[in-house]
Write a structure and sequence with these properties.
single chain; 515 residues; mainly beta; Immunoglobulin-like; 4-stranded antiparallel beta sheet; 2 helices; 45 strands; globular
């Protein structure tokens, strides 16, 4: 799928940039195969398209061969790769790519890992289950550069460490959906509240929606209309009249100014007895053109649901195009856009680094991606050719921290993963421990004890510590809980680790030994 957008239903319709509609491209490519029953979610990650259905098959449909609760297809050709009836015992809800080897499946009974390499459904992520099918189900999930944020009905937003598959914290509240804005901030929506979540500290700020409400759809779950622009710092959604009836306006929220426009654009077709109503997720932003794509069907029953439209608005709220689909019970679920480009690394990232002391390189602005959110690009240290000369770790603030350990040179390979497409960059590091005056002074300002440590590590500093990360010697972030100047490392295996602490004035790095 090179251009345009696709709308998963029983199959997939592909609309190119010229407005030409190619119907049932998945079924046509796979000898009349379909997905499971009630396909409400689809997403592209890497070179694969993941389709999530509530149930494995629709017993009343004899025309198409059902494919299961999860169907994986080639994102370019739509050829089926695999299908799964069982995704952990529950019904399907959502999917998110975690890294090029792993994804998460959101279900009615929790979140399950998925091995992308071996195409295998894994185990339940601890504490993500619990609650009945309609009181504890998982909603949509997003992957930021450091964490996965997942909405769980009634419980709140689960924050998951993707390196350890553990829930770090839960932001309590009755949320419906979640997105990440262009500036990297995370936003979750309630009936009449928009909540900003700091992507690394998880602190929250509440913005009350002035007059309208957001429609929640947990009873018959869909991904919801909350959507974010990749090019402008704006969010959009459709207002509601009640918990079950959508309104007629697209609402715009300016993230930078914190202001609402509750009459940004009107849904077309509001005259006559039978009006156009949004269906499924209904609204999404094209990441390349910044246009809004709105799916509508006709109110009423029976033959009215055979009438479906796709409307395009520009980012000023002007309706620029309308496509009426061939009459059929399409029940459009969600618009998904092709992922054609790879991340680009700009020349501000140095390739030669001399490290006489702890050196910090900000990675937040060195990459971009034409058709994906730059703030969500995942950075990691892929390899270190000489760990005895230098250590290299990436903090939760997307900073590469290089620490000289001995004299010598090392090649550090840093990976940038944008929605499953990975680009590597090699940095040549020259390490020297002969000039460490600045680093030694910092050690006097910052210390950890006891070291070696068994359970609780204390941090001593005159500055306020904003966040703490612990890495193993390969550069992998490990699970360690920081609170009130202490780090709980009791769950870590015995060994040597690197602790990085960021304060208001500096970044400190020290070696710790776990007994």
């Amino acid at each position: 799928m090179k251009n345009g957008s696709v709308i998963p239903t029983v199959s997939v319709n592909f609309i190119d940039n010229n407005g030409n509609v190619n119907y049932r491209v998945y079924s046509n490519a796979n000898a009349n195969q379909a997905f499971g029953a009630t396909t409400q979610y689809g997403t592209i990650y890497g070179d694969k398209f993941y389709f999530i259905s509530k149930q494995a098959a629709d017993g009343g449909d004899t025309q198409y061969t059902p494919g299961g609760r999860l169907v994986v297809a080639n994102a370019q050709t739509m050829q089926k790769i695999a299908g799964f009836n069982n995704i952990g015992g529950g019904d399907g809800r959502s999917f998110v790519g975690v890294n090029e080897h792993k994804g998460y499946i959101g279900a009615s009974n929790g979140i399950y890992t998925f091995n992308i390499d071996n195409l295998q459904v894994g185990t339940l992520i601890p504490t993500t289950g619990g609650g009945s099918q309609y009181a504890g189900q998982i909603g949509n999930m997003i992957r930021t550069s450091q964490y996965v944020f997942a909405v769980k009905q009634a419980a709140g937003v689960l924050v998951i460490n993707p390196n350890t598959d553990t829930v770090v914290t839960t932001i309590a509240g009755s949320f419906h959906s979640i997105v990440q804005a262009k500036d990297g901030s995370v936003w979750a929506i309630q009936d009449q509240k928009l909540v900003k979540i700091n992507p690394t500290t998880f602190t929250t700020t509440v913005y009350n929606i002035p007059t309208t409400k957001y429609i929640g759809a947990w009873g018959a779950w869909n991904a919801g209309s909350l959507t974010a622009s990749s090019q402008n710092n704006t969010l959009y959604w459709i207002n509601s009249i009640s918990s079950f009836v959508s309104g007629t306006q697209i609402v715009k929220f300016d993230v930078t100014s914190g202001t609402f426009n509750e009459t940004f654009a009107a849904i077309p077709g509001q005259t006559g007895t039978y009006k156009q109503i949004p269906y499924g997720a209904a609204l999404r932003v094209n990441p390349v053109t910044d246009e809004l794509i709105l799916n509508t069907t006709e109110s009423g029953y029976g033959a009215h649901y055979q009438n479906n439209w796709i409307h395009t608005f520009n980012n000023t709220g002007t309706l620029t195009n309308t496509i009426k689909l061939n009459d059929y019970y399409w029940f459009p679920a969600i618009a998904v856009f092709p992922d054609n480009t790879v991340p680009v690394i700009n020349n501000t990232l140095p390739t030669q680094v001399s490290a006489n002391s702890v050196t910090t390189i900000d990675l937040k602005t060195v990459t971009s991606d034409t058709d994906n959110l730059a703030a969500a690009i995942v950075k990691s240290v892929k390899s270190n050719s000489n760990p005895s000369a230098v250590s290299a770790t990436i903090t939760t603030n997307d900073e590469l921290v290089i620490t000289p350990i001995g004299n010598g040179t090392a090649s550090i390979v840093v990976s940038f993963n944008s929605n499953g497409k990975v680009v590597d960059k090699t940095l040549s590091i020259t390490s020297s421990t002969s000039v460490l005056a600045t680093a030694e002074v910092k050690k006097l300002e910052f210390s950890i004890y006891p070291n070696p440590v068994t359970d609780i590590l204390n941090i001593r500093t005159q500055e306020k510590v904003l966040n703490v990360s612990v890495y193993d010697m390969s550069g992998k972030l490990v699970n360690a809980q920081f609170s009130n100047g202490q780090v709980n490392v009791s769950m870590l295996p015995k060994g040597v680790y690197i602790l990085i602490a960021k304060t208001e004035k500096a970044v400190y790095q020290q070696k710790l030994i776990k007994n």
